[in-house]
Design a protein that fits this description.
- The structure is a single chain.
- The chain is an alpha/beta fold.
- The chain has two domains: 1-109 and 281-367, 3-Layer(aba) Sandwich (Isopropylmalate Dehydrogenase), CATH 3.40.718; 135-264, Isopropylmalate Dehydrogenase, CATH 3.40.718.
- It has eleven helices and twelve strands.
- The protein has helices at residues 24-39, 55-61, 69-76, 94-106, 171-187, 205-217, 230-239, 251-264, 303-315, 319-334, 348-366, and strands at 12-20, 45-50, 79-84, 111-117, 135-141, 151-154, 162-165, 192-197, 224-229, 246-249, 274-276, 282-284.
- A ten-stranded mixed sheet has the order 2-1-3-12-11-4-5-10-8-9, with helices on both faces. A two-stranded antiparallel sheet has the order 6-7.
- A hairpin with a 7-residue loop joins strand 6 (151-154) and strand 7.
- Helix 7 (230-239) runs parallel beside helix 8 (251-264) and helix 9 packs antiparallel against helix 10 (319-334).
- The longest helix is centred in the C-terminal third of the chain and has 19 residues, at 348-366.
- It is globular.
- The two termini are 22 Å apart.
- The model has no long low-confidence stretch (mean pLDDT 95).
- It binds adenosine-5'-triphosphate (ATP).
- Adenosine-5'-triphosphate (ATP) binds at residues 23, 27, 84, 86, 268-269, 288-294, 300-301, 304, 341.
C-alpha cells in the first residue's frame, strides 16, 4: 500500500515494543526479529525497548498503563510496535481499555489506517476477484465517536434501566480525518475518496460529517469524492471492492468495515494497522486481538504483525526496508509457507526465521 507520513526519515529510530497478551506475545517477537534483520544491511540503527504491559502485570500489580508512560513514549520513542491485549482472566478487559484506548487518546492518534490489500488471489472469499480488485485504504477516526466513554446508567439492574452512550464528534476531529483522507489520496496518486456515515439517521452527529466533507472536498478538485451510507458501503465493498481507493469514516463504522475488509483480503491473521498522528510518536498493531483460543500453541500467524512493521518502517521513512518485508510476506503466501489459519503447517517461530531470510534476500536484490 502507499506510504504514510514520516516521523523522522533519519537513520536511527527508537521503538517501544508492547507485545501484550495471548498471541500478541507470540507474533511480536517474530516481527522484531524480521525488523532487526531487515534494517541491519542498510546500516540503520534501530533500538527496541520492550514493556511488559498486559494482563499478567495487571493481575500481579494492579497496573495497566503506568503513570508517566504516555509522556515517556511521546518524548523518547519514534514509534510503538504493539501486539494485542485481552485475557480471559480479565473479563472486564479493563487493562486493554486503559492501555490501548489510553495511548490512542493521550497520544492523540487520530488516524487509524487499515489497508485492505489482497496479497494472493486464493486468499479472498469473493468469487472471481483478484489482487487488482482488492486494494484500498480504510481511514477510521480514532479519538472520538462512541468510543470516548461518555454516558451512564440510570436505574441500573432494575427493569426500568436506561443506558446512554454518547456519540461525540468535534468539528476539529471530523475535519482533520477527512482532510487527511484527501491528503493521503493526493500524496499517493489515488483518485477516489469515499466518506461513509449514517447521516439519514444520525441527523446531528453525521450532519456535521456531511457539512465538513462538502467543504473540504472543494479543496481537492482533482480527487473524485463520494458519499455512501454505511449500510450501502457494507454492500458495495463486498459486491465491487475495486470501486474504492480511500474510505474515511467514524470510529465505530471504521472498526466494523475494516474487519469486513480484513476478511476480503485473507482474514485477521494478515491484516495490519497503524494509529497515527502525523509527525508524532505513533502506534502500529495488527488488527487481530489476543486470540485466546490459539494462544500458547505456537501456531499464530505472524504475517499481520510483519505487515504492520512494514507500515511502521514507512512511517520512519525507510521505504526499501518496508518493501523488503512486503516482498517476504508475498513470497510466503506464494510458496504456501504459512500457518494453519491460511492452510499451511508452519509454526509461528519457523515463519519468523523464514521471513528473516526472505527479507534479507529481498534487500540484497534491491541493491
Ligand atoms: P480479543 O478478545 O483479544 O480481541 P478475540 O479472540 O476476540 O481476541 P481475535 O484475536 O481478533 O479475537 O481473533 C478472532 C479469531 O481469529 C481468533 O480466535 C483466531 O482463531 C483467529 N485469528 C486472529 N488472529 C490470528 C492470527 N494472527 N493467527 C491465526 N489465527 C488468528
Amino acid at each position: 500500500m502507499p506510504g504514510i507520513p514520516l516521523r523522522n526519515g533519519g537513520p536511527a529510530a527508537r521503538i517501544a515494543v508492547i507485545p501484550g497478551d495471548g498471541i500478541g506475545a507470540e507474533v511480536t517477537p517474530q516481527a522484531v526479529k524480521v525488523l532487526r534483520a531487515a534494517t541491519r544491511p542498510a546500516r540503520r540503527s534501530i533500538e527496541f525497548v520492550e514493556f511488559d504491559w498486559g494482563a499478567d502485570k495487571y493481575l500481579r500489580e494492579g497496573i495497566s498503563l503506568p503513570s508517566g508512560a504516555v509522556e515517556m513514549l511521546r518524548d523518547e520513542f519514534d514509534a510503538i510496535l504493539f501486539g494485542a491485549l485481552g485475557d480471559p482472566r480479565v473479563p472486564s478487559n479493563q487493562h486493554a481499555a486503559d492501555i490501548l484506548l489510553g495511548l490512542r487518546f493521550k497520544l492523540d492518534l487520530y488516524i487509524n489506517a487499515r489497508p485492505v490489500e489482497l496479497l494472493h488471489d486464493r486468499l479472498t472469499p469473493l468469487r472471481d476477484r483478484t489482487e487488482k480488485d482488492i486494494r484500498l485504504m480504510v481511514l477510521r477516526e480514532n479519538t472520538e465517536g462512541l468510543y470516548v466513554g461518555v454516558g451512564g446508567f440510570f436505574k441500573k439492574g432494575t427493569p426500568d434501566e436506561i443506558a446512554v452512550q454518547e456519540d461525540v464528534n468535534s468539528r476539529k476531529g471530523v475535519e482533520r480525518i477527512i482532510r487527511y483522507a484527501f491528503e493521503y489520496a493526493r500524496q499517493n496518486g489515488l483518485k477516489r475518496v469515499c466518506m461513509s456515515d449514517k447521516s439519514n439517521a444520525m441527523t446531528f452527529a453525521h450532519d456535521l460529517w456531511q457539512r465538513v466533507f462538502k467543504e473540504v472536498r472543494q479543496e481537492y478538485a482533482n480527487i473524485e469524492s463520494r458519499h455512501l451510507y454505511i449500510d450501502a458501503l457494507a454492500m458495495e465493498i463486498v459486491r465491487e471492492p475495486g470501486q474504492f481507493d480511500v474510505i474515511v469514516t467514524c470510529n465505530l463504522f471504521g472498526d466494523i468495515i475494516s474487519d469486513l475488509g480484513a476478511q476480503l483480503a485473507g482474514g485477521l491473521g494478515l491484516a495490519p494497522s497503524a494509529n497515527i498522528h502525523p509527525g508524532k510518536t505513533s502506534l502500529f498493531e495488527p488488527v487481530h486481538g489476543s486470540a485466546p483460543n490459539i494462544a500458547g500453541k505456537g501456531i499464530a500467524n505472524p504475517l499481520g504483525s510483519v505487515l504492520t512493521s512494514a507500515m511502521m518502517l514507512e512511517f520512519l521513512g525507510w521505504r526499501s526496508e518496508a518493501a523488503a518485508l512486503r516482498t517476504a510476506v508475498r513470497a510466503a503466501l506464494r510458496e504456501n509457507c504459512v500457518t494453519p489459519d491460511l492452510g499451511g503447517s508452519k509454526r509461528t517461530a519457523e515463519m519468523g526465521d523464514w521471513l528473516v531470510a526472505k527479507s534479507v534476500e529481498a534487500l540484497t536484490q534491491q541493491h
